[in-house]
């Protein structure tokens, strides 16, 4: 005699039902030994449906698998390439940085005929950390050399997680704009420098520069706001005394 499979409709299942205290509520079948086990018939049906889904969508699934594999391989390849570019870039910029430190700005920027200058390193290794750092050095060198627009371009290409260096880059861009007689743009960058991971050591100096730049742009209300922030947020800063004097001056100019 063949065995009847255990399902929700079998005689065994019908015999194992919870008796509700509500006579109108339907009885609930359960398996007291394995209450979490699925009905084998339903499980078998699911497997059949899954196999049918895979069969019908085989090409799509293979395409998705190929995309995932290519993404993993491509990501690993890019990681290796970037590390290689970074090492080459660091080696290439070594002599240029030496010239930069010695204030030989033209050689630092353009190279010496045998070694690449910072401009070439920033261009050829732009996707690496070395190329990114070369942009910073090139921006500072261009600023010192009076090439203010070039300095802005290089420093805007630079980015860093280090809050000191990034804030310094913003401030240098402000300096370049100020040299180009663009005080409003300069003030905006000084503000970015002051508020990039704001701290009591460097933010007051950037705020003071922002205030003076806004005065130059005849934005006296903005200048007063910058000076006020020094006095309220950083009252113990060395710049606080100057901020008081400059604030009084800006207040006087604002009522004329």
Under the CATH scheme, the architecture of the domain at 160-255 is Alpha Horseshoe
Strand order of the largest sheet: 1-2
Helix percent band? 55-70%
Number of helices: 12
Structural class: mainly alpha
Shape: flat
Description:
70% of the residues lie in helices and 2% in strands. It is mainly α. It has a domain at 160-255: Serine Threonine Protein Phosphatase 5, Tetratricopeptide repeat. It has a two-stranded antiparallel sheet with strand order 1-2. α6 packs antiparallel against α7, α9 packs antiparallel against α10 (203-216) and α10 runs parallel beside α12 (240-254). The longest helix has 44 residues, at 58-101. It is flat, with a radius of gyration of 35 Å.
Topology:
Blueprint: H1 11-15, E1 17-18, E2 28-29, H2 40-56, H3 58-101, H4 105-110, H5 118-124, H6 129-144, H7 148-157, H8 163-179, H9 183-195, H10 203-216, H11 220-233, H12 240-254
Antiparallel strand pairs: 1-2
Helix pairs in contact: 3-6, 5-6, 6-7, 6-8, 7-8, 8-9, 9-10, 10-11, 10-12, 11-12
Concise summary:
It holds the Pfam family TPR_16. The protein is an all-alpha fold.
Descriptors for this entry?
256 residues; mainly alpha; Serine Threonine Protein Phosphatase 5, Tetratricopeptide repeat; two-stranded antiparallel ribbon; disordered N terminus; TPR repeat
């Amino acid at each position: 005699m063949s065995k009847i499979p255990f399902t929700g409709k079998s005689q065994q299942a019908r015999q194992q039902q919870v008796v509700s205290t509500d006579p109108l509520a339907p009885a609930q079948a359960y398996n007291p030994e394995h209450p979490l086990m699925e009905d084998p018939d339903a499980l078998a049906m699911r497997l059949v449906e899954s196999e049918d889904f895979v069969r019908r969508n085989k090409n799509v699934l293979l395409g998705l698998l190929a995309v995932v594999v290519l993404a993993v391989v491509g990501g690993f390849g890019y990681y290796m390439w970037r590390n290689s570019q970074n090492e080459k870039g660091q080696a290439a910029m070594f002599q240029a940085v030496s010239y930069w430190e010695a204030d030989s700005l033209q050689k630092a920027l353009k190279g010496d005929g045998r070694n690449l200058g910072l401009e070439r390193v920033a261009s050829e290794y732009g996707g690496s950390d070395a190329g990114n750092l070369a942009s910073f050095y090139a921006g500072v060198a261009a600023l010192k050399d009076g090439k203010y627009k070039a300095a802005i371009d290089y420093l805007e290409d630079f980015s860093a997680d280090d809050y000191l260096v990034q804030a310094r880059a913003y401030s240098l861009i402000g300096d370049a704009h100020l040299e180009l007689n663009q005080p409003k743009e300069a003030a905006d960058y000084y503000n970015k420098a002051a508020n990039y991971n704001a701290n009591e050591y460097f933010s007051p100096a950037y705020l003071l520069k922002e205030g003076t730049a806004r005065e130059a742009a005849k934005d006296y209300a903005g200048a007063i706001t910058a000076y006020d922030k020094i006095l309220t947020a950083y009252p113990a800063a060395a710049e606080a005394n100057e901020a008081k004097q400059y604030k009084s001056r800006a207040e006087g100019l604002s009522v004329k």
